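Consider the tokenized backbone below.
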């Protein structure tokens, strides 16, 4: 037996809304089978709904509920599932797609933030160099290349039953990032939670300047409070300190050259209880003595 992974709570909520919206029409569309108890009837409705609604996303269900609010007849479950599927025109036409894709590159060749589908990105990659380096005539040729490629890629996607999925390609300009994400939210290409996540920690240049000034003011106020506690005229440790030389520091050891006055040289060594160096012992022998 087929076991659906569609959440039971979602099925219960959809059925509850259908009952509230259509009242008697719901009962006529989903009659109780003969001999069926109320509990069996409810279980059968939920099981059937889960089976039919298998694979629908929250966005799909929201699309179906929005249409149900404006419908005057009560749909059976397969009809409601059809309402949940995106319409064919959910895929943008090639000219609409080009209007979005060409904004991914500025006039100076700078990469800009764009919210587009994989099909737009693939089609644009085939004419990107013409946009970066070409004149208005090459730009027109680039548009033709893009539109042909995009139409082919969208046809393939539709044949596979795919839905348009928008992704964000971030450029380097912070202000333009924020503007592009906000515009994509207005156009319905991004959900509010997705846009909020993308905009987290992003600031315009004006906001960054304002925050910088705020921190500067906070720092100045903190320094003003610390002012009375700060020692004034502190010693600059990087400046060489001047001090008077002490008497013992001004005395220089006198060096006696043994070749000038050998006897005095020997006397100095005896005073320091040092031996006569081997290099000058021959002089001691010449004068007839030793240390």
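A designed sequence for it:
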């Amino acid at each position: 037996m087929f076991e659906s992974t569609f959440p039971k709570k979602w099925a219960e909520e959809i059925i509850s809304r259908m009952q509230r919206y259509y009242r008697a029409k719901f009962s006529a569309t989903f009659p109780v089978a003969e001999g069926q108890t109320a509990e069996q009837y409810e279980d059968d409705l939920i099981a059937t709904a889960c089976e039919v609604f298998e694979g629908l996303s929250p966005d799909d269900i929201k699309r179906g509920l929005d249409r149900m609010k404006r419908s005057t007849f009560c749909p059976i479950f397969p009809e409601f599932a059809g309402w949940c599927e995106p319409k064919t025109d959910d895929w943008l036409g090639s000219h609409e797609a080009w209007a979005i894709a060409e904004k991914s590159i500025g006039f100076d060749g700078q990469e800009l933030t764009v919210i587009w589908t994989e099909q737009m990105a693939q089609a644009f990659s085939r004419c990107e160099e013409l946009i970066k380096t070409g004149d208005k005539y090459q730009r027109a040729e680039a548009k033709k290349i893009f539109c042909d490629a995009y139409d082919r890629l969208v046809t393939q996607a539709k044949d596979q039953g795919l839905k348009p999925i928008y992704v964000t390609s971030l450029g380097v300009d912070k202000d333009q990032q924020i503007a592009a994400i906000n515009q994509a939210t207005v156009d319905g290409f991004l959900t509010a939670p997705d846009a909020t996540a993308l905009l987290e920690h992003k600031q315009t240049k004006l906001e960054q300047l304002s925050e910088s000034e705020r921190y500067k003011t906070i720092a100045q106020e903190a320094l003003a409070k610390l002012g009375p506690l700060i020692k004034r005229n502190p010693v600059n440790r990087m400046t060489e300190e001047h001090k008077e030389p002490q008497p013992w520091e001004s005395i220089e050891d006198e060096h006696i050259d043994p070749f000038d006055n050998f006897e005095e040289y020997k006397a100095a060594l005896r005073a320091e209880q040092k031996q006569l160096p081997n290099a000058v012992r021959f002089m001691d022998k010449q004068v007839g003595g030793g240390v």
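The mean pLDDT is 82.
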